[in-house]
Structures are given as structure tokens and as C-alpha cells.
Amino acid sequence: MRIDLHTHSSVSDGTESPAELLATARAAGLDVVALTDHDTTGGWAAAAAARPPGLTVVPGMELSCRWFPSDQPPISVHLLGYLFDPLHPAFGAERARLRDERLARAERIVEALAADGHPVDWADIVAHSAGGVVGRPHIAGALVRGGAVASVGEAFTTLLHHRSPYYASKADTDVREGIALVRAAGGVPVFAHGLATKRGRVVGDDAVAAMAEAGLLGLEVDHPDHSDEERSHLRGLAADLGLIVTGSSDYHGSNKTTPIGACTTDPAQFERLLAAGTGTPVLRD
Ligand code: AMP
Ligand code: ZN
Ligand code: FE
Ligand code: FE
Questions:
Q1: Ligand 1 pocket test: which of 143, 252, 263 has the largest number of ligand atoms within 8 Å of its C-beta?
Q2: Other Cβ atoms within 10 Å of 6 Cβ, number
Q3: Ligand located closest to 78 CA
């Protein structure tokens, strides 16, 4: 059994449609794949319609959140949610707020880049995102098309880096509130790439314990952005706190070099996740 619980389609900032993504998952020999676009369930229906026989599809999403330490600025954290009711009103409203927040923030970054002569145009970026939830990868694509950088990866290490003067943050959901919303909608909240120091500041063990107290059910331990040390630390925390352990690729199509299935989830852990999710059914034969 090969299980990948974190992937992005062109409904957010991946490059493949949900149908293409499921075909990629099948061709890579996966048995289970979760679709976890940023702040939207917009790809669920297309994934359900295109599911190839034999492939189990877990409806999911990745919610943009923040942790508020007492002694430093907020830290960006991502919360995976699985098997929740997509029609839960308060949770749906929060996802819509986040998508609006993303649009306003991306436009701020683009205006600042354009004012300094970088080859980006807001209308062009919105057109290229094809209705998907706009993120920095879409701005990176415009910078590649305009010849300012050679690749999306280069854009992320230069003009779009979180310490770049062009970077702008957004008012993401308090992670404890995000956890409560996923649980209220019958879903399973899992802390995504929680110790990925290469992405920026990360939270301490106290925050993970507080999240568990707030209803967190799992930790994404095996992720391409985690070092071996980060993985073993998280594995220990999951054992101490009784949390489900997941592994996944965070596949983004050609926006990243990571292949689908690069990290995977143990089948026994997946069974725990399935047992905890009551908001929407898993899609399988
Ligand atoms: P944003 O959510 O707008 O702040 O953009 C960050 C998102 O871009 C994260 O989901 C990353 O996983 C994704 N991303 C896609 N391609 C890359 C890349 N080459 N380097 C870093 N992050 C990337
Ligand atoms: Zn992404
Ligand atoms: Fe993420
Ligand atoms: Fe992701």
C-alpha cells in the first residue's frame, strides 16, 4: 500500500487538474492519494468524477494558519484537514475569507514588484491562475514568463522569499480556531510540515502540545522539507501526544521538483485517520 496524503492541483497552486493529478498518482503506483488544495474544496467534485478504479481518494484541504507566540511575531503554520463536511457554514466562510485574503496579498506583492520594474502584471496573473486559488507560485510563473528568473524555484529563493522586500503576509486563521473548525465539520486536522526550518520560523513543542489540546489529531512527519532530525523529533512528539503520524509529498506538479509519492503514510496510521473522519466519505471502490 502506497499512501500520499498531501498534493496540490491547479485548483490552487499545482500545475495539474484534479483529473490529471489522479492519473499521475495511479501511474506512480499509489493506492491512496489525498487532494489538499490551499483553502478550497473546489477540486473535490472533479476528483470524484475522475477517480480511476482501484485508487482511493481522500478529500482534503490545506488551511493557511498562524500560531501566535507570546514573545515574537506570528508564525505561519499549515493545517491539513481531511474528510470534513465541505458545507459546514462557519468553516466554509473561513475558507472564503482566506481566499479573499490571498488575492489581496498577492496583488500587493505584484504591485510592489511592478513598481520596481519587474515584469509582472496582475490581470495576466489572474488569467493564468485559471480560477485557481492564487499563491506565490502564480507570481513566480509570471516572473519566469517575463524572463526575470529561470525557474519557479529561483523566484522563491529571490524576489518571492519570505525575507524579500516584496513579500507581504496575510491574515491567516489562528491555528487553534482552524483545528476547531475542522473538528466541528467532522474532519481530521493534521499539522503540515511542522518543523520545516527551510521554510522560515517554526513553532516549539509547547505550540504542538497546545494544538493537541485544541483537538489536533495528527502530525505530518515524513515531508520532503523535513530533515532526519526534524522527522525523529516530530515522531517522538506524536508518540508522546498520541497523534497520528502521516507522510506525504506535497506534490505541486511542475511548480516543484518533488515527485508524487516522495514520502508516504503507514497503512495503520491511515486507518486511524479514516476512523476519525466523519464529515464526508472517502472515495474508493
Ligand atoms: P503562498 O501560499 O502564496 O505563500 O505560497 C507558498 C506555496 O508555494 C507553498 O504551498 C509552497 O509549497 C508552494 N511552492 C510551490 N513551488 C514552490 C517552490 N519552488 N519553492 C517553494 N515553495 C513552493
Ligand atoms: Zn502550495
Ligand atoms: Fe504547506
Ligand atoms: Fe502543501
A1: 252
A2: 28
A3: 3
- The answer for residues whose C-beta is within 8 angstroms of residue 196's C-beta and 6 or more apart is 202, 223, 225, 226, 230
pLDDT of the residue at 131: 81
Positions of the chain with pLDDT lower than 70, given as ranges: none
pLDDT tens digits for range 189-207: 999 999 999 888 999 999 9
pLDDT digits (tens, 9 = 90+) for 259-270: 999 999 999 999
C-alpha of residue 256 to centroid of ligand 2, in Å: 9
What separation in Å is there between the alpha carbon of 13 and the centre of ligand 4?
9
Distance 256 CA to ligand 3 centre (A): 13
Measure the CA angle with vertex 48, ends 47 and 49; round to 5°. 90
Give 113's contacts (C-beta < 8 A, 6+ positions apart). 120, 139, 143, 159, 166
Q: Specify the pLDDT at position 23.
A: 98
CA distance 9 to 115: 31
Contact indicator for 18, 9 with CB cutoff of 8 Å:
yes
Best residue among 38, 113, 156 to mutate for probing ligand 1, ranked by most atoms within 8 Å of CB: 156
CB 54 within 8 A of CB 28: no
Q: How many CB atoms lie within 10 A of CB 198?
A: 12
What separation in Å is there between the alpha carbon of 282 and the centre of ligand 1? 27
Decide: 222 in ligand 1 pocket, CB within 6 A: no
Mutual angle of helices 205-213 and 175-184, in 10-degree steps: 30
Instruction: Please tell me the residue having the least CA distance from ligand 1 atom 5.
Output: 136
The pLDDT of residue 199: 87
